[in-house]
Specification:
Mean pLDDT: 76
Strand order of the largest sheet: 10-12-13-15-14
Oligomer: single chain
Low-confidence stretches: 500-518
Strand content: 15-25%
Number of strands: 15
Structural class: alpha+beta
Order of helices and strands: HHEEHEEHEEHEEHHEHEEHEEHEEH
Helix content: 40-55%
Number of helices: 11
Distance between the termini: 36 Å
Shape: rod-shaped
């Protein structure tokens, strides 16, 4: 389908506008999705940080419990030695049996392993080790806590004790829990890059979702956590034994990637717009190329009739006496060549419309073809015998009529009836051109005005395209397929606007021109 410059411009702007609207809608939707994902990620980070704080608080309370338990155990041992030293005071009215029983109760209730030695480090308690020397591995095992020194009945004694097995296991567990929590913080950080440092921010306690080569030196660590701190505030946490740490984190790779999706989408949209525009231009160039080729072929086709006629006249006139009628016919063919040249000069340029008698112009176009077609082709002309004046480009309108008539002749294979009917009303003039040819299949009817479409074996698909352009664009009218029935015939209808000058006589110049071209 041949597009006018106005329609091409409208289509280009429509494509651009639709593309921009789609891009804006998509950007809004993508931005909305990104914001939702960011909000969800931030909520997960907040929940994760709260969980971290709660775990560290649990660690603090556990450590405090163990510390108090240790102090309580030492107080019991202190009480044990105090009671034993009280035996040195012979003036006190002390029930020694009760005191010894109480001492054994304290030791048994605390389940604290103890070793008592004399001044020579010979073990006196417990009974199983009595008489052995306190040294070596045994001394190292009971030296974890500071020993108690006391005097019993004038003899210096030393009491060593160590943590119960339960307390030792619990102390080991607290360190393991500490390390596991640190690792859990880094590994279960919702896929975020995480670095946990000490209070001085110089030593990495744990890390997760981050390349260790980025933090393997103090300088790299400081640069990395400074970058993280610029994006999110670090989370301080308290660790056991009065230690402090900081959790540094940043957005997940997914959020980072989503930030660039709108930019990527804009780029892709622009690329698609450019591709679409270039494709549109390519299509137009192909159509233009086809039009130029078709114009060349149409020129040859239009010139064929008068040239063939002139050649026939030349052969006929060889050896004959010149007749005025012969000269007149040759002049008609020469005028025809001039008309064809004039027609093609107007293609691409908007012609100036003049007030013309469309009845006379139509008769003139049909008269030329009638004398140069087969006698088996019958013309039925139903045109008013009074002038009907319309704004018209004579040469281009004659081309349209001749093109429709030639198509009709081809459709009838040179044998049949062509009917031209002109209907005059107040505002418009209707010209109907019908034939008794083979008709146009219904599936092809909507494409007959498309550039390049033809049902002829040797056609170029340009005639009706140019006819539509001449009628629609240059004359502000319409040309339509009124009806077409296979095996019956086809009728086209041209509708042209006219001025309210019905019944007025044309000037003598128009009458003379009609008489000359009849």
């Amino acid at each position: 389908m041949k597009l006018t410059p106005t329609k091409r411009t409208l289509i280009k702007w429509s494509i651009l506008t639709i593309s921009i609207l789609l891009a804006l809608i998509a950007l809004y939707y993508i931005n909305h999705v990104v914001n939702q994902l960011r909000q969800t990620e931030e909520e997960r980070v907040t929940l994760w940080a709260k969980t971290v704080v709660q775990k560290t608080e649990l660690m603090k309370h556990t450590e405090a419990f163990f510390r108090h338990s240790s102090l309580d155990e030492r107080r019991k041992i202190q009480m044990y030695t105090d009671i034993l030293e009280s035996f040195n005071n012979t003036d006190m009215n002390t029930d020694i049996a009760f005191s010894l029983a109480y001492v054994h109760y304290i030791v048994d209730s605390s389940n604290t392993p103890i070793v008592v030695t004399d001044k020579d480090s010979i073990i006196t308690v417990p009974h199983i080790l009595k008489g052995k020397k306190m040294r070596g591995r045994l001394l190292k095992e009971f030296s974890e806590n500071e020993p108690f020194h006391y005097t019993l009945w004038g003899m210096p004694m030393t009491l060593y004790y160590k943590e119960t097995q339960l307390y030792s296991d619990m102390r080991r567990i607290i360190f393991e829990v500490n390390n596991s929590i640190m690792q859990e913080i880094s590994n279960n950080s919702t896929s975020m890059p995480v670095v946990i440092t000490d209070s001085a921010r110089t030593r990495v306690l744990a890390s997760g979702n981050i390349d260790t080569t980025e933090i393997n030196t103090t300088q790299k660590l400081r640069a990395r956590i400074a970058d993280m701190e610029g994006k999110n505030n670090p989370i301080p946490i308290a660790l056991p034994y009065n230690r402090k740490a900081y959790i540094f984190f940043e957005d997940t790779p997914l959020l980072k990637m989503l930030r660039y999706i709108p930019v990527l989408y804009i780029f892709i949209t622009m690329v698609l717009i450019v591709i679409s525009y270039n494709l549109f231009r390519t299509i137009q160039n192909v159509q233009t190329h086809h039009m130029m080729v078709g114009m060349a072929k149409e020129t040859a086709h239009q010139l064929g009739t008068p040239i063939s006629s002139l050649m026939a006249w030349m052969e006929y006139l060889k050896g004959k006496t010149l007749d005025e009628n012969y000269v007149e016919e040759i002049n008609k063919d020469l005028y025809r060549l001039e008309t064809i040249s004039h027609r093609f000069s107007k293609i691409g340029n908007k012609p100036e419309l003049e007030q013309e008698d469309i009845c006379a112009v139509t008769r003139s176009a049909v008269a030329y073809l009638r004398n140069r077609t087969s006698k088996q082709t019958t013309y039925v002309i139903d045109i008013p015998d009074y002038p009907v004046v319309v704004p018209l480009s004579r040469t281009l309108y004659e081309w349209v009529i001749e093109n429709l008539c030639k198509n009709a002749i081809d459709a009838m294979n040179g044998k049949g009836t062509i009917t031209l009917r002109l209907i005059n009303d107040n505002k418009n003039v209707l010209i109907e051109v019908g034939d008794t040819g083979r008709g146009i299949p219904s599936k092809q009817q909507k494409h007959i005005f498309d550039s390049g479409f033809t049902t002829k074996k040797r056609g170029w698909g340009l005639g009706l395209t140019l006819a539509k352009r001449i009628v629609n664009e240059y004359h502000r009218g319409t040309i339509t397929l009124k009806e077409s029935i296979e095996g019956v015939g086809t009728t086209f209808c041209i509708k042209l606007p006219k001025e309210q000058q019905q019944g007025q006589l044309l000037s003598k110049k128009l009458s003379t021109r009609e008489h000359t071209n009849s």
